[in-house]
Inverse folding.
């Protein structure tokens, strides 16, 4: 038993027949007037017309593993990440996540455009669960990695999208996440920075950080990921080694 | 379950950092923020002074002082509650990315306005001196008690309004109308004693009446009435309970509707 326990890595993320459906909220976000004037219809639509983003998804991600999620637009990949991040709650099924989850790294969103780079770093750090002192200790390392020079003291609205991505990756990468969620961001940076990101991801893999990686760049999925899940029409189509799954996925596309 | 792994230190820093952010985003800088938080109630005081003292000739001594003692604490409540409908929307990007206790966002809005209110108190002192009065010792315990009561009440209302507005986006309009109505139903620009006898009990159905009268009596006369405190505190707890209940029912859907 002792030996086995050493060999079998414990799961960091468990999805057990997880479903996620949304009501179509526009009936009520359209306003109280709308909602009240069309009350019976609004209620019945809230109840019956739900958008099924994920249906009975099950998978496990082991600690230290790099796990890819691939699939077409709208297949439910981002919903799955949102569920892991804990910002969404499953409609059915069970999710277990063990470890400190990084803020979801995704394009565009995530920062406050009025705050400077430095202030955004602190904000992201405390949101992630660190204390301000922890973040300040790592500040120079983050700034160095992002390589934004004087822009670090400028409000974020003056940044280009590539620069925002650099900052985002640097913050998340430097704040010791135990589980890292990446939604299609690395491709935005220039080649130098992409290389830096890949090196950083390699060092995370060595340090047993669990990484969940969503991408349409199939080659980078093969390069980075150990295992991959292919989600199609909100269901799991295939789970397996990165090469195998990406190969069948690519074949079907042709 | 995952949200509960945060330490006390993290909560403390989260509140501090988000409050600073709020100040910066809303007023661009804290120096100007301070000016605005003082200028706003002062401008209102000026308007009401002209309307009621000069034009309508209300029979009251030191009416300016009277106005200021009520308008400053009101400004805190009204500024927080008017901001409340949009604060979750304004923070959509962090709500959708990280799992953290979302109720901290309305809390920081209310705290920020509270800080501005506290910083504006010297202005009240200046006006007291202008009218040959002075602060009293009872401020030392009176101010913290009233601050606590109003913090709980405003936070409760802000939590309620901000949560509901995510689902009914035009709730914002209702809120601003409601705040205006509430202002005139609260004895701020008139003393509660001027309200006709048969309506007076109605005034006290307004949760803010006793609190605002309490602030004014403290600022002007150094007086603190235990009954006022008890009733205001009860209202505050009730608002907090309702606000928190609604928030906790809706909070997990925030990332879906944003």
């Amino acid at each position: 038993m002792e030996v086995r326990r050493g060999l079998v890595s414990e799961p960091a993320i468990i999805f057990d027949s997880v479903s996620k459906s949304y009501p179509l909220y526009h009936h009520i976000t359209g306003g109280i007037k709308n909602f009240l004037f069309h009350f019976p219809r609004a209620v019945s639509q809230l109840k019956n017309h739900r958008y099924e983003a994920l249906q009975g998804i099950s998978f496990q991600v082991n600690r230290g593993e790099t796990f890819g999620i691939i699939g077409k637009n709208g297949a439910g990949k981002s919903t799955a990440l949102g569920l892991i991040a804990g910002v969404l709650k499953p409609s059915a099924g069970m999710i277990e996540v063990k470890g400190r989850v990084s803020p979801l790294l995704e394009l565009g969103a995530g920062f406050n455009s009025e705050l400077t780079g430095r202030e955004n770093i602190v904000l992201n750090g405390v949101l992630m669960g660190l204390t301000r002192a922890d973040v300040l200790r790592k500040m120079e390392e983050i700034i160095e990695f992002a390589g934004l020079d004087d822009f670090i003291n400028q409000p974020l609205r003056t940044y280009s999208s590539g620069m925002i991505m650099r900052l985002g990756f640097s913050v998340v990468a430097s704040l010791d996440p135990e589980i890292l969620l990446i939604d299609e961001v690395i491709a935005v940076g220039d080649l130098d920075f992409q290389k830096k990101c890949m090196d950083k991801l390699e060092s995370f893999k060595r340090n047993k950080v669990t990484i969940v990686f969503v991408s349409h760049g199939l080659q980078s999925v093969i390069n980075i990921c150990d295992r991959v899940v292919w989600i199609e029409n909100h269901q799991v189509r295939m789970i397996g080694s990165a090469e195998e799954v990406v190969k069948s996925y690519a074949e079907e596309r042709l | 379950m995952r949200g509960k792994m945060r330490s006390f230190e993290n909560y403390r820093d989260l509140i501090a950092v988000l409050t600073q952010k709020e100040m910066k985003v809303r007023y661009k800088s804290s120096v100007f923020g301070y000016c605005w938080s003082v200028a706003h109630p002062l401008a209102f005081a000026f308007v009401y002074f002209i309307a009621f003292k000069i034009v309508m000739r209300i029979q009251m001594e030191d009416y300016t002082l009277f106005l200021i003692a009520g308008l400053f604490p009101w400004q805190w409540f009204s500024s927080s509650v008017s901001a409340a409908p949009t604060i979750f929307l304004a923070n959509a990007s962090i709500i959708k990315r990280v799992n953290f206790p979302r109720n901290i966002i309305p809390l920081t809005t209310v705290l920020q306005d509270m800080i501005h209110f506290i910083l504006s108190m010297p202005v009240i002192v200046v006006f007291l001196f202008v009218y040959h009065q002075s602060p009293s010792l009872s401020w030392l315990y009176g101010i913290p008690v009233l601050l606590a009561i109003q913090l709980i009440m405003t936070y409760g209302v802000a939590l309620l309004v901000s949560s509901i507005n995510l689902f009914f986006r035009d709730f914002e309009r209702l809120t601003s109308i409601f705040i205006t109505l509430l202002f005139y139903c609260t004895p701020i620009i008139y003393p509660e004693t001027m309200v006709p006898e048969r309506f007076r009990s109605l005034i006290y159905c307004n949760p803010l009446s006793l609190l605002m009268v309490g602030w004014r009596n403290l600022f002007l006369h150094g007086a603190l009435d235990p009954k006022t405190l008890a009733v205001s505190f009860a209202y505050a707890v009730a608002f907090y309970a309702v606000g928190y209940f609604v928030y906790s029912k809706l909070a997990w859907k925030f990332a879906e509707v944003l």
Observations:
- The two ends of chain B are 22 Å apart (CA to CA).
- The interface with chain A takes residues 2-3, 5-7, 9-10, 13-14, 16-18, 20-21, 24-25, 28, 92-100, 166-171, 174, 252-253, 255-257 of chain B (CB under 8 Å).
